[in-house]
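Customer ticket, subject: "Can you confirm the structure for Ripening-related protein 6?"

Message body: Hello, I'm evaluating your service for our small team and ran a test protein. I'd like someone to confirm that this is what the system normally returns, since I don't have a reference to compare against.
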Amino acid sequence: MAYAKLAALGVLVVVVLLQASTGTVARSSSASKVYGMPAVMSVNGFERGEDGGPPAECDGKYHSDNDMLAALSTEWYQGGIRCFRAIRITRADNGKSVLATVVDECDSKHGCKNNIVDTSRAVWEALGLDTNVGEVPVTWSDS
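Agent reply: Thanks for trying us out. I re-ran your input and got the following:
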């Protein structure tokens, strides 16, 4: 009986090791935490008919530019893992920061740079920035 239990345990260990070596072990669906990632913040329109394009990737809806919203470059968007999660956006020049909710992807395969945090007018206003500037250096973090 003890031999059978030991053999079963041995088989289990071998299976786990094989899965680990081939990359088939289950992985968490949560995003890796990001802290202080340097980025370029640009202004985006999240309402119908604006330069933001089609509805938001996270829910297929348009959103008000008066809401604290963000779209992340494809790599940071991570296939939607960050949808509806808050991120902290911090101005590089003075450290002022705000929270914004991720609702969209800035598609790096279709013209978006890999380091973009596209945000609504409300985020720019909360950070005391003029949207006519176009782009500003920031850092972003998962909140």
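A couple of notes from the result: The chain has three helices and six strands. The domain at 37-142 is CATH 2.40.40.10 (Barwin-like endoglucanases). Feel free to reply with more questions.
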